[in-house]
Design a protein that fits this description.
InterPro entries: RNA_methyltr_RlmE, RNA_MeTrfase_FtsJ_dom, rRNA-MeTfrase_E, SAM-dependent_MTases_sf. It holds the Pfam family FtsJ. One of its GO terms (molecular function) is rRNA (uridine-2'-O-)-methyltransferase activity. The chain has a 7-stranded mixed sheet, sandwiched between helices. A two-stranded antiparallel ribbon has the order 1-2. The protein is α/β, with parallel strands linked by helices. α6 runs parallel beside α7. It is globular. The chain has 2 domains: about 35 residues, no CATH class; about 180 residues, Rossmann fold (3-Layer(aba) Sandwich), CATH 3.40.50.150. The longest helix is centred in the last third of the chain and has 20 residues. Helix content is about 40%, strand content about 25%. The site of S-adenosylmethionine has 25 residues, from α4. S-adenosylmethionine binds next to α4.
Length: about 230
């Protein structure tokens, strides 16, 4: 039965294409073994989180305390929705919007734009329309991950470019306004363009910190850039 599943955006999804090579089967077995014993995967299941990444956001919020009960939050790259689960819980009187390329099952308290590519002008217009009624945004989250090409340098640059797209939404495109004490938290895969991107962020935020929550896998190049105090 497991032959009918494949990795997509970090998750196993059903697919008619079958793994035919020994290498793919080995990777799948290692993935299943790691998932069944991984501390954060087990805890995510216990707490009904849709993904273990919920613990990354909780750890970052415990450190910087930026999710407030009244916050307006937009979570870009939100599927399957574990960050949204954390945000609706911590911001019960705010407004929470999620956006993803994939279909996202409903979450009470979250306004979700499924099947929506953040790079598309139509999607950006929809976001602009929805947020126009809400005033400024307090927190912008991006945990996006493009499908890996297998080349780390290329994947790093593609993800930085996606983060830049989000950054431009509230700096150049004015799709919405980020509040003065606003926060932008984005995931990157580490690589050569990190320094340059941090410099760009530092031009618009007084504080830019690099964080690696304990729930990030040791062998992963994943890092989070936490930006606060929008100038
Ligand atoms: C690691 S997952 C996010 C997990 C999520 N934070 C959670 O806790 O459930 C990355 C997501 O980014 C989405 N993504 C990648 N490129 C995107 C794009 N251009 N527009 C919108 N979403 C995108 C993928 O579809 C995928 O669902």
């Amino acid at each position: 039965m497991l032959k009918n599943y494949r990795f997509f955006g970090g998750f196993l999804t059903k697919n008619s294409r079958r793994f035919s090579t020994k290498k793919a089967k080995g990777n799948l077995n290692r993935y299943i073994q790691r998932q069944s014993t991984d501390e954060f995967t087990v805890r995510a299941r216990e707490h009904n989180f849709r993904a273990r990444s919920a613990f990354k956001l909780m750890e970052i919020d415990e450190k910087f305390k930026f999710l407030k009960p009244e916050s307006t939050v937009i979570d870009i790259g939100c599927a399957p929705g574990s960050w949204l689960q954390v945000v609706v819980d911590r911001c019960p009187n705010g407004y929470v919007m999620g956006v993803d390329l994939q279909n996202v099952l409903p979450i009470r308290g979250a306004d979700i734009l499924s099947l929506s590519d953040i790079t598309s002008p139509e999607v950006q217009s929809k976001i602009r329309e929805k947020l126009a009624k809400r005033g400024s945004v307090d927190v912008v989250l991006s945990d996006m991950a493009p499908n890996p090409t297998g080349d780390n340098a290329t994947d790093h640059l593609r993800l930085i470019e996606l983060c830049r797209t989000v950054f431009r939404l509230f700096t150049e495109e004015k799709a919405f306004e980020l509040s003065k004490n606003g926060v932008f938290l984005c995931k990157i895969w580490d690589g050569s363009a990190r320094g340059e991107f941090i410099r760009e962020l530092s031009n618009r935020f007084s504080t830019v910190k690099t964080v690696k929550p304990t729930a990030c896998r040791d062998n992963s190049a994943e890092l989070y850039l936490f930006c606060r105090n929008f100038k």
